[in-house]
Structure formats: C-alpha cells, structure tokens
C-alpha cells in the first residue's frame, strides 16, 4: 500500500506549516489566550478566505478540493504542532462531516459558508450524566407543527463562545439511553431561548455550558441519520484529535531533546546521561506509534460501522496512553519549570492531558473494542 501523500496533500501541509510558523508562535498564542475573545478571529479568516484550507475535505461541487479524512488528518497534525486553538474539529470535522453525510438542502447551503469562514460550528453532544454514552441524552426536541421545540443542557461545548451554529444531539422519542429517537440538529447559535455560561478550558480553548429553553427550530434543521450518524461524527472527531496528538507528541519530544541538550548537570548536558537517552528513545517510539495509529484510524473511517468503531477504539486507546507517556516524561525531564505558564511544554502537556479523555478515555475505548470484537 502506498502511504505517501499526493502532491496536493503535500502542498496543503507545507502551506499550513509555513502560515502557522509565522503566526502561531508561543508568544502570539499567549496573547490570543489573554484577549477577551480567547483567540484571534483573523487566523480563521486567513485559513478560510485567504489560504483556502478549509475547503480541503469537501467535495468539488460544493466549492471544495475533493478531499476527506486524510486532508483533515494533515491539517490536525500541523495544528497540533503549535497547539492551535482553532475550531477545526468542531466546524470542519464534526459540522462539515455531519452535513456531508446527511446531505440535502441544509448541507448545500451551509458547507459553502463553512468553506468561506462565515460559519463556525460548535458540537453540543455531551451532557453531565452521559459520560461517553451518546444515547444518554436528556435534551429533548419535541415536534411542534413542522418544526421542533428544544429543551435541555449541554456541557463543555468547545468553541461555543465563537460559534454561529450549534450541532446539537437531542431526543425526539424513546426513553433515556435508548438508541431509537436520538437525532442531530444544526441550529442558529443566537436563536431565542439559548443561553450560555462561557469559560476557558485548561488547554486554552473556550467552552460553554449551553442551555436550551423552549427553543423553536425549523424542521429542516434536522440532519437525517440518527444515532448512527452521531456515532460516525464522533468517531471522525476522535481520529482527528489523534492526528492532533501526532503533532503534539512530536513537538513535546523536540522540545525535550532541545532542553536536555542545553540543561547542564555535573558539567555536561543532561542529554549525555544514558537514562535520559533511553527515556527520549522511548518517547520517540511512542510518538511514531501515535502517528501510525492515527493514520490507520483515518484510513478505516469508511469501513462498515462495526469495523470502523473497533478500529477507532483501538486507535484512541493506544494514542491516549502514548500521549500520556510522552507528556509525563517531557515534564519530568524539564523538572518544575515544565509546568510553569512561561514555558511552552506545560501548555502542550495540558492539551495532551485533555486529549487523553476527549471523545472517550483509554479504558472506555478498550471496553468498546472488546465488546465489538467479542460481538463479531
């Protein structure tokens, strides 16, 4: 199998890497986090309207480049290298992926807006009681004429403070935890009856607790596909953050190697100590395993549901443990300075720690993999 990237994919990687090297320095990122909005909106505009990178995973008939999951993987790896706080997963992977899968007039109207940078989507799927069970939903969407009335609460909705639209899971029927009756809606984030409590997350993003109180939404806001579509979208998001972990792991390794070459003890750089050489060799092995697993997961996203889920769980379980290993060893090598806000490595470690549990912990995915394998 030829796993090399195409000329177009290589161009995308190089274009994004050059742009981020110029605009996403550690100091620039720190200024973004300290700003009232928590980001620089000009970065997203540049990625979309100026560089045209947001079109990469979409079909040509919708103004895209005809790419897909591989293009998302390439983008996420580069964004991970600079721990970018851009809503790529929420808008492009979750929102764009759901719209592509569902199709119809809503997709035809919204995807061009995503590509142009005019539409930012937040994926509101998690609830406090739900843990990782996508069917454990208390939010309801009751039919009212041709539309629906939405009520409920979604927790830790990444990018919600910046969003123009919310991708919301809600129950139209059935009982709690029942798969039947769970649906996906794309709604205006400023619709009457929506309120938010915004806050910064430990990894530098902004998120919200989002509350829906008698929110009237049109019938065309429904994306057909039900729980199967939601699971597909979450699996695609899971693989995307595994690709992000590839960039983060490699960046933490490089920073650790650089620090070990500069820090002196007993009259020589600590990189000369055999125990630290072994540690960094182990970190390199784990970083390369993350890259391999993320690519494998990306290539298997189009398989039948059971095979896709098993592959994604295998990938996420390994990536969660590997990024934890790299992060902990990076901090241990740096010592106390590694967890200060002044040093970049601590910020990488925070994002790595969030990735461990985002879209399912290692334990959850090991259990899911075992259940799927045993069922097969």
How would you describe what is shown here?
The chain has 376 residues and is an alpha+beta fold. The protein folds into three domains: 7-118, Butyryl-Coa Dehydrogenase, subunit A, domain 1; 123-224, Butyryl-CoA Dehydrogenase, subunit A, domain 2 (Beta Barrel), CATH 2.40.110.10; 227-375, Butyryl-CoA Dehydrogenase, subunit A, domain 3, CATH 1.20.140. 52% of the residues lie in helices and 16% in strands. It is built from eleven helices and ten strands. The strands form three sheets. It has a four-stranded mixed beta sheet, with helices on one face. A four-stranded antiparallel beta sheet has the order 2-3-7-6, with no helix packed on it. A two-stranded antiparallel ribbon has the order 9-10. A hairpin with a 5-residue loop joins strand 6 and strand 7. Helix 5 (88-102) runs antiparallel to helix 6. The protein is globular, with a radius of gyration of 21 Å.
């Amino acid at each position: 199998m030829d796993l090399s990237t195409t000329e177009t994919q290589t161009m995308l990687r190089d274009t994004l890497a050059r742009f981020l090297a110029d605009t996403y320095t550690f100091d620039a990122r720190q200024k973004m986090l300290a700003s009232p909005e928590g980001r620089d909106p000009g970065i997203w505009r540049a990625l979309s309207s100026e560089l045209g990178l947001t079109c990469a995973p979409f079909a040509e008939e919708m103004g895209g480049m005809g790419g897909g999951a591989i293009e998302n993987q390439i983008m996420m790896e580069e964004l991970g290298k600079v721990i970018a706080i851009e809503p790529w997963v929420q808008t492009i992977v979750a929102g764009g992926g759901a719209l592509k899968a569902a199709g119809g007039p809503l997709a035809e109207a919204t995807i061009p807006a995503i590509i142009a940078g005019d539409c930012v989507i937040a994926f509101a799927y998690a609830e406090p009681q739900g843990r990782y069970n996508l069917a454990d939903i208390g939010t309801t969407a009751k039919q009212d004429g041709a539309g629906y009335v939405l009520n409920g609460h979604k927790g830790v909705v990444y990018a919600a403070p910046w969003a123009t639209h919310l991708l919301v899971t809600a129950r139209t029927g059935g009982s709690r935890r029942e798969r039947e009756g769970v649906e996906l809606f794309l709604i205006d984030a400023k619709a009457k009856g929506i309120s938010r409590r915004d806050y910064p997350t430990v990894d530098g993003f902004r998120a919200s607790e989002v509350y829906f109180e008698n929110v009237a939404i049109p019938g065309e806001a429904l994306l057909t596909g039900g729980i199967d579509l939601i699971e597909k979208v979450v699996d695609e998001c899971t693989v995307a953050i595994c690709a992000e972990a590839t960039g983060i792991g490699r960046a933490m390794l490089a920073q650790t190697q650089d620090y070990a070459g500069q820090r002196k003890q007993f009259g020589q750089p600590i990189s000369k100590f055999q125990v630290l050489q072994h540690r960094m060799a182990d970190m390199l092995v784990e970083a390369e395993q993350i890259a391999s697993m993320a690519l494998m997961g990306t290539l298997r996203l189009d398989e039948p549901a059971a095979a896709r889920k098993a592959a994604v769980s295998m990938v996420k379980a390994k990536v969660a443990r590997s990024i934890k290993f790299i992060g902990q060893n990076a901090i241990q090598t740096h010592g106390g300075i590694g967890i200060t806000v002044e040093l970049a490595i601590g910020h990488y470690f925070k994002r790595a720690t969030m990735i461990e549990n985002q879209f399912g912990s290692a334990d959850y995915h090991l259990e899911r993999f075992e259940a799927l394998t045993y069922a097969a």
